[in-house]
Design brief:
Layout: H1 2-18, E1 23-40, E2 51-70, E3 75-85, E4 89-102, E5 105-112, E6 148-157, E7 160-167, E8 181-183, E9 188-197, E10 200-202, E11 205-214, E12 223-237, E13 240-250, E14 269-271, E15 274-276, E16 279-291, E17 294-306, E18 314-329, E19 332-342, E20 355-366
Antiparallel strand pairs: 1-2, 1-20, 2-3, 3-4, 4-5, 5-6, 6-7, 7-9, 8-11, 9-10, 9-11, 10-12, 11-12, 12-13, 13-16, 14-15, 16-17, 17-18, 18-19, 19-20
């Protein structure tokens, strides 16, 4: 499969170069490497002792891409592969989609993300997604609507726009349902509004998905919903950018967001014959400062999950980071960073879930 994807992109690039009269094309790449130390507290290790380890990795959002647009500039497409290497190398599909545009309206079909859970205003926390699943405070105060097959319609005029569409629901397992068939009569539905004026910008968004099950006996509940409302914003004042976001989700494990820190805790819990829903509330606040080739970032993020079926009813985790960036050239920058992640108390036992800290740097080349 990896070889196939590489060959497919290579063929697409060759076709683009061989047919300049048919379409304009752009080929680009980002090479993102992190290195540093990660420390894990005793509560989170197999040995029961604190462990600090070195790592070096090519980040999973390193990429190779090619974009196309026809001569009339009303039809285009984009193909993008993710490239990563830690203990082994891997290739993944990030985007493959086409679009058609008429005036201020745009139709898109393919595999990508969208305005729901956009990371355009997320804190610039960059160390490290591979192997630590720490990037842009995702699931630590930021929520990202993951890439998935979809159809969308977007209208954008000046500083105002809206987007709506349908997408393939997540492939998920729901505890309490077994021996039958999980299905979706209705696709995921998402919508978002964008507003920009001066130094202010926001893109509030909403997503809803329903899961159903065939083959249950008795009075067991045979459908359950997951939905989310995400409200990010930013204010730019001179060299300072203030970024803020809040979100509220019902059964977040059924919502197309990256549940990197939650796992099964994000799903509803079957109690008897009905579901007890999990809710998640969170947000982040970050300050960005820009001074020519130098930038500085700091932020805090929080997530709280609640379910009455849990013995302790809820748990809260919180994270902090500080980082800076220096652009050596237009195509190369270095980004040192320190992040601290507190996993709070266990929702069942009440015991301390422990913490992690990550000290490292990102070396980024972009073309």
């Amino acid at each position: 499969m990896k070889k196939f994807m590489i060959i497919a992109v290579a063929i697409a690039m060759c076709m683009a170069i061989a047919a300049p009269a048919m379409a304009k094309y752009t080929v680009g790449a980002k090479m993102l490497t992190t290195t540093g130390y990660k420390s894990t507290s005793e509560e989170r290790t197999a040995s029961g002792n604190d462990v600090t380890t070195f790592w070096a990795s090519v980040e999973g959002h390193s990429r190779l891409f090619v974009s196309f647009v026809n001569a009339a500039k009303d039809t285009g497409g984009h193909v993008e592969l993710g490239l990563s290497s830690y203990t082994s190398a891997s290739v993944s599909l990030r985007h493959v989609y086409g679009w058609y545009k008429v005036g201020n309206c745009k139709f898109l079909a393919g595999h990508t993300d969208n305005w729901f859970g956009t990371l355009a205003f997320a804190p610039s926390q960059n160390v490290s997604v591979t192997p630590h699943l720490k990037l842009l405070f995702i699931d630590w105060g930021s929520q990202w609507g993951v890439r998935r097959p979809q159809l969308s319609f977007t209208y954008m005029s000046g500083g105002f726009g809206f987007q709506f569409g349908i997408a393939q629901p997540l492939d998920t397992a729901i505890t309490g349902w077994s021996g039958g068939d999980l299905y979706n009569t209705i696709p995921e539905i998402f919508l978002a509004i964008q507003f920009r004026a001066g130094g202010f910008a926001t893109i509030p968004s909403f997503s809803w998905t329903r899961y159903e099950y065939e083959g249950l006996t008795g009075n067991t509940e045979d459908s359950v919903d997951g939905w989310a409302f995400i409200f990010p914003m930013k204010f730019n004042v001179g060299p300072v950018s203030i970024r803020f976001a809040v979100h509220y989700m019902k059964n977040p494990g059924l919502v197309p967001v990256a549940n990197w820190a939650d796992g099964a805790n994000a799903n509803p819990v079957m109690v008897g014959t009905s579901f007890q829903e999990t809710t998640q509330t969170g947000g982040n606040l970050a300050l960005h400062y820009y001074a020519g080739a130098f930038k500085m970032y700091a932020g805090v993020g929080m997530e709280k999950l609640e379910n009455d079926a849990w013995e302790k009813k809820d748990y809260t985790r919180i994270a902090y980071f500080i980082a800076c960036r220096y652009s050596v050239t237009k195509n190369f920058f270095i980004n040192p960073e320190f992040g601290y992640y507190d996993y709070g108390d266990d929702e069942t036992t009440g015991y301390d879930n422990g913490n992690e800290w990550v000290l490292g740097a990102l070396f980024a080349f972009a073309f």
